[in-house]
Structure formats: C-alpha cells, structure tokens
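User: I've been going back and forth on whether these two constructs are worth ordering. Before I decide, could you fold them both?

Assistant: Sure. I'll take them in the order you sent them. The first construct and its structure tokens:
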Amino acid sequence: MQSRVTGTTLPVLEIGLEPNDVIVATSGELSWMTPNVQMRTTTATAGSRGLWGAITRAVSGGGLFMTEFTSNSGMGAVAFAAKVPGQIMELQIQPGRGYLVHRHGFLCATQGVELTAALQRSLGGGIFGGEGFILQRLTGTCTAWVELGGEIVSHELGAGESLLVHPGHVGMFEESVSFDITTIRGISNALFGGDGLFLVNLTGPGRIWLQTLTMPNLAHALSPYLGRAEAQPTTAAAVEGGVAGAVLRDIFGGQR
C-alpha cells in the first residue's frame, strides 16, 4: 500500500491498494476510485463491538456507518479530498501510542484502527464546552490519516506543563496528554470578551497539534455572503452539534 498527499490549500489523499488491502473511512468521504475497488458499508468495523460501539463512534463524529474499500483484482486506487482548507497528516498508531483528534478530523485508516469517543471528566463541560470537547480517540495498530484546518502549530509539552486553548483550535494530541475544561477567568471576559466561556486545559507530557482554522470562524466569515434564511440559527443547527444530531445524521444519511 502506498499513499501520497497532493495539493496545498485543499489537499487530497490518494492511496494505492494492493490485493486484499483494506481502507476504512467514514461514509461520505470518498472522492474517486478505480473501477476494481469494492465498497462495503457496515457498522461492524473500526473496532466497533456491537451497536453501542457504533453509537459511541457516531458521537465522536466518526459515523454510525463506516465504509471499507478493498481491491481484490489487481492494483486499485482510492482518494479522499479535504473538506476545508488545511492539511492532511499521516499517523502511525500502535498500542500505547494513540491520538485524540478533533471531532471531524478522522479521514481514513488501514484495517486495525479503533475509533471511539473521548470525553473529559466533566459531562457538563462536554455539553457546553463547544466544538472540540467530544473528541475522536484513534487507537489500535494501523496507519491513519487525519485532517486539520488551516495551518498547524505543534508544541511539545513537558510533564506537568499546560497550555490553555480555545476549543476549536484543538486539532490533535497524543493520548499521553491529559485534557480538561476550564472557564475563562473574569465575568466581564466571559460575558463580553467574545471568546466564549470555556477553554481546553492541555497538560503534558506529550505533543499537541493546534489548528488555525475553526469551523465556527469559517462559517462566520461566510455568513455575510449567504441568504438571510441560511444565516439564521435554527433548532436543527443547534441539535446538529450535539450527541443526538451526530447519531441522527448517520441514521438518515445527512451530511456533516
């Protein structure tokens, strides 16, 4: 199996498949493939053990259904394009060396990936903390590819060293890094500062990757060019960001 990332602003991942190679991706990620590649959509993959495993994966943004791509007759190829301007990173995942990725970061992986939800200790923080606090946990033994928005800024945190990060800018970090939610200090800062109420407290040891482009900021930049009906917040839009929305989108085939 060979792979390459082509492009800069909106890159695409192309993977060459040898016979019996398997690539696992979230449903709806496919960009193009050769005719001899076969697709199999199922809930029983990416480490899922029954319906509950598939539901917890959907909560993390990974999807209730996943698609496996194989080439059983000669060499094949499959491609996955980035959804937003940013970068595609390749990760080597081994037991004891997993990663936590932002909610829509997982692109695809080889067979052996385990994709689950990672929640911090505070349930209230997970509900109200905003984008980035229901994370995808990537473990197992595989090669995986993730998508981060904008430019990537990486930091190596020493043991006990911490960094406070806006939720949307948390791209990915090693599973050795602990994370929790903290409120912004000062009532006036929280109410009128425009930065929300919560920050992520990342504590080492381990490496973290921060992303400069967040989906809320991108949506805010595009909102003046959309019709008033599309720009108005709705109940459906609010649900889409929550646990119920993640599951319902996959059941009824909606797009992220």
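The second construct, handled the same way:
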Amino acid sequence: MDDRLRQLVRDLADGTVSPEDGFNSLVDFPSEDLGFACLDHHRVLRQGLPEVVYGEGKTPEQVVAIVARLKQKGHPVLVTRLDEETYRSCGRDLDAGHKIPGHYDSLSRLWTWNEKPISPRGEGSIVVACAGTSDLPVAEEASLVAEAFGNKVIRLTDVGVAGLHRLMDRMDDLRQARVVIAVAGMEGALPSVIAGLVQCPVIAVPTSVGYGTSFGGIAALLAMLNSCASGVTVVNIDNGFGAACAATLINQPLSTPAREQTS
C-alpha cells in the first residue's frame, strides 16, 4: 500500500495522473465500510503492520468479502483463529482472483496470503520457545505471524521446565535471539527461566493448557505477571498473534520501518 501511494504522488507530480483520477483512487482511503466491517487500509502506514482479520465468530461470507478487499488493496493478508469448518466452507473462495494461493495451517488456525515473497529483514531472529506439545497451537500462531511479517523465526519445541536440560541444550539459539516469545501453560514458569538466561526482551504467552486449578490459563498468566526476572512482558492468554506483533516491532532496526516488511 505505501509503495502504491508513493507512486501515486509521483504520478500526480509529473502529470501522468489527473487530480480527479488521483482522488478517485483514494475514495476509500484510509477506511472502507463494508456494512458489517470497516477496513482500516491506513494501518500499515500508521503502525507498520497491516490490519489482520480475526476469523473466529465471522461467517464464511464475511471472511471472503474482507479478504477480497484487502487483497485488492495489495495488503498481505492474515486470518487468525479460522477454524477448519469455516475454512472448508470458504477456502476456495479465499483464493479467487489471484494466481498465488494462500496457505492454511490447521494447527494454528491461521490463513496467510501475500502477493510477493517475503524476505526476512529483521535485525535478528525471533525465538519462539514452546513449553509443551499441547502449547504448540499458540506457539505456531506466534511463529507463522512473525514469519509473515518478515522475521526469521527459530522454533524451540517441548522445552518446558519439567526437563530443564532440554532448554539448556538450546542456549546457542536463545543467546542469538533479538527477542524471545515464551509460550507456556500449567504453572507458566518458562518465561522467568528464559529471562534469567538471556539479555533480550522476553514476551510471555500464557496458554489455557493445564488441569483444573490452572483456571484456563489464569494461573500461568498470574505467574508470568509476577515474574521475578527482569524484562518479561506478558500478553493475554493464548495470544500468540499479539506476541508476534510486539516481537516484530522490537526486531526492526530504527532505520528500517516495519512497514517495509509488508510491502
């Protein structure tokens, strides 16, 4: 979107586009009202990250209509929390009008599409450390979103504190990270352990994994909020997407705006 606006300004300046045509091309900028949704086409310019579609609770028809308009505007498209039943109902329609197909990951329930190949441009790598296999859906959501935004991602799977040697075996990966996303349920101890071993920011993601007294992730959330380690930031329960967005902004060098990752 930002590249197209730059080109439009150049075309207006050299007279190849008339003011009227330029105005008409921006008639639905910065937002577009679809009746059931108001799309924020300006977000990528303001924040460096495009608007992402939260799929849960939307009908297949609504998802398809939103995706179609985002694609027409040249945005990379991410649909989070898109359950398999909804995807089976609309998956073919999501790819309509473009030769490049999207990709659906059933584990993370994430659908992604981009018109151009994405090259990692972050300042370093983002490590996504997953405490247990049951935490993988949230961890993979964080990993795929971070990759879609142009980051190099290193996945550490099943490195929870019940077997601390598994984490220590991956210290080389942890030490090279620009930011670590630590995903854990149960007692939520993993982020505190990692934050005591690395010198980069740690983003803690509590998951709803655990037995009854975990209260659907509240126990892990409170443990992470009360971490004794410095530099731990906590997002909401099961919010791998939010962690990836924060990590993306941390991972960008000051001289390279994050929006360049998505153009």
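Notes on the second construct follow. The radius of gyration is 20 Å. The chain has a mean pLDDT of 83.
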